[in-house]
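Researcher: Here's a chain I'd like modeled. Treat it as a single chain, no partners, no ligands.
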Amino acid sequence: MTDVEVRRIRNDFPILDQQVNGNTLVYLDSGATSQKPVSVMEAEQEFYEQRNSAVHRGAHTLAVAATDVFEDARSTVAAFVGAADNELVWTANATAGLNLIAYSFGNASTGDVTPEARQFAVGPGDEVLVTEMEHHANLVPWQELCRRTGATLKFIPIMDDGLLDMEAAAALFTSRTKVFSFTHVSNVTGVINPVVELARMAHDVGALVVLDACQSAPHLGLNVKALDVDFAVFSGHKMLAPTGIGAVYGRAELLDAMPPFLTGGSMITTVTMEHAAYLPSPQRFEAGTQPISQAAAFAAAVNYLSETGMDRIHAWEAALGQRMVAGLEAIPGIRVLGPAAGTARAGLAAFEVDGVHAHDVGQFLDAAGVAVRVGHHCAQPLHRRLGLSASTRASAYLYNTTAEVDAFLAAVAGVRPYFGITGD
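Model: Modeled as a single isolated chain. Structure tokens:
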């Protein structure tokens, strides 16, 4: 990709063509939520204008058309990550997906469950392993699972450069490890974890592997089979799709054996006043009215990404990320979190400005029309490990140009002088 092509791509994103505080908008907060192309917005609108109906329920023409759209979208998104149709479950977002997995494992740990479900049970003496770089969405559900069941939560520490301590990891995988859940890409440091190696270490001790792919599915070209993970979660709104929809990938035989999380209509086969029997995956985990129009738009989003080319998107974003890190490192008083320039990372950079709180940095940049994220980015333990309570994060996507990165760097260079801070 080139700046010329990216400028053409930007024509598909009308929100980017606006002024903010008298300046042309520079949107560098796609790590929080991405902007949407016209084709995605049109897909959702077209559903409501032409096909709106409940799915998997009615036998009339509109209901059949709506169901076709819904299931075709599932096929499109499943194929995008290398999964089969029955291995993709719709959720409200990735956080809901992680809770689905954790609560299902908890349901397998108590009461009367099927023999197939017992493989997911955890209890006293068992261990759940995460990493020190996790988003709260991939930490708190496991904390709660361990609290409810008596299992022990452990974590792989990170090193000063933000990379996982792989030597420590090797020692933490034991016969007691039942679940290993970790992020593919850190939403703070941009570190890209070695998924295949970590999954092998977990499988060698018989643990199930759960991948938080929120920051990788939009950017890297995800293939869950090649990565050899048992489960993966990702959110639509971070990859050009609307809010209100995400997905869980799970190996079919595992999903079919797991106890359901949410129960009610649309996920059952037979219900009496005393008992209910449940459908196989994916309907097993899709109780109630589903995000139908959002699914149609999600399919349009992954089609847009596929047509652009995920390898090309990743290469472009990686270049923008390196440009950001190198530029930030050259500014006095700036500390970049994570690996230094020249080390592979995602297209984002979080940083500390010496003497200026992250919130003040964000307001200064916003005055210049630059939109970034400030705070702990839902990763307090990682920030605490790096000696911070908050940072500023710029994150790029396929619609950002090198000129925008340079405008961001120029604005950052003005922060400390504005607040009267001089020197290194």
